[in-house]
Design goal:
It is a single chain. The chain is of the alpha/beta class. The protein has a single domain (15-330), classed as Rossmann fold, CATH 3.40.50. The chain is 38% helix and 15% strand. It has helices spanning 24-35, 74-80, 96-101, 103-123, 157-176, 202-212, 231-243, 264-275, 299-305, 313-330, and strands spanning 15-19, 40-45, 64-68, 86-89, 128-132, 179-185, 188-189, 217-219, 225-226, 229-230, 252-256, 262-263, 282-284. The strands form 4 sheets. It has a 7-stranded parallel β-sheet with strand order 3-2-1-4-5-6-11, with helices on both faces. Strands 7-10 form a two-stranded parallel sheet. Strand 1 (15-19), helix 1 and strand 2 form a beta-alpha-beta unit. Helix 6 packs across helix 10 (313-330). The longest helix is centred in the middle third of the chain and has 21 residues, at 103-123. It is globular.
């Protein structure tokens, strides 16, 4: 992975904090930064949704540091920000269904935790703050593709927390003279994404089912569409945002997708084909709070950050299923 660098110049004078760095997105960002010799890569994670095995390859790296702690604790955030040049904030309590079941926990982690991290960054004079939002903020806005300035009413507590992050970032950028860049991720998938737990994402669940002869469950008719986005594209735009010197690109929110649109049925068919099986999915009731269709307009990210997604849906899917095959072969 990451055979092509997404940045110019050197990372050797950069100390970067990744919150939620034991998650699959955060750990992929950490891998990139360490590969290209960042001076210091600090991961802050409470391991509520992240996994220690995602960090095993880095633990002995001299430039890597792990802080086990929680973004809901301000003292922990302040400690983690010591000596840091920029923040890559990936920590969150994800999942639309979990937010409907646990709105309090979702709000504490995603809103209070975000504000804690921004306060800690400001306290330590850190200006650049890159953070994960979500395509769920588009809510009931019906038009495709999704364009950043046109959103509807959020349909879940999770979506509300992510939109709240964007509002705080817009305000804090003015109040504290900070540089925020937010990303509305569109259904990110790839290596290290776990099929474990009640709120696991669809692609690792489908991969696990196809490779192990388990039932693959589709919520609803399977005609709902998504702009499934391979994780390396997400690494690329996070790196570009952390290092950009384009002032016009700062204090903005961007779609992060590939501009494609594939149904859940197409996803299932692609995964079973890659897994070498022809098993059929099992349909069940639609999931509460889900949007029907989603597709990203990525022209803003292209124009202001130089975002150029190198991995389309099918290429990313092949890499991901092969990753789960390899895991299975060594377990």
């Amino acid at each position: 992975m990451y055979n092509t660098p997404y940045h110019s110049g050197s990372l050797e004078n950069k100390a970067i904090l990744i919150t939620g760095g034991a998650g699959f997105i955060g750990s992929n960002i950490a891998e990139y930064l360490l590969k290209y010799k960042a001076k210091r890569v600090v991961v802050l994670d409470n391991f509520l949704t992240g996994f220690r095995e995602n960090l095993e390859a880095f633990m002995s790296h001299p430039n890597f540091e792990l802080i086990e702690g929680d973004i809901t604790n301000l003292d922990t955030c302040l400690k983690a920000c010591e000596g840091i040049d920029m923040i890559c904030h990936q920590a969150a309590l994800g999942s639309v269904p979990r937010s409907i079941k646990e709105p309090y926990a979702t709000t504490v982690n995603n809103v209070d935790g975000f504000v804690n991290m921004v306060y800690a960054a400001h306290h330590h004079g850190i200006k650049r703050f890159v953070y994960a939002s979500s395509s769920s903020v588009y809510g009931d806005e019906p038009n495709l593709p999704k364009i950043e300035h046109r959103i509807g009413t959020p349909l879940s507590p999770y979506a509300i927390t992510k939109y709240t992050n964007e509002l705080f970032a817009n305000n804090f950028g003015d109040l504290y003279d900070m540089e925020f860049v937010g990303f509305r991720y569109f259904n990110v998938f790839g290596p290290r994404q776990s099929p474990k737990g009640a709120y696991a994402a669809v692609i690792p669940l489908f991969s696990d089912a196809a490779l192990n002869g388990k039932d693959g469950f589709i919520n609803g008719d399977g005609g709902q569409t998504r702009d499934f986005t391979f994780v390396e594209n997400v690494v690329q735009i996070n790196v570009k945002a952390m290092l950009t010197d384009n002032k016009e690109g700062l204090n903005q929110v961007y779609n992060v997708g590939v501009g494609g649109r594939y149904s859940v049925l197409q996803l299932w068919e692609g995964i079973t084909k890659a897994a070498g099986t022809d098993q059929k999915p099992v349909h069940r009731d639609p999931r509460e709070g889900d949007i029907r269709d989603s597709q990203a307009d990525i022209s803003k990210a292209r124009n202001l950050l130089g975002y150029d997604p190198l991995f389309d849906f099918w290429k990313g899917l092949e890499i991901t299923v092969n990753y789960f095959k390899e895991l299975q072969s060594v377990s």
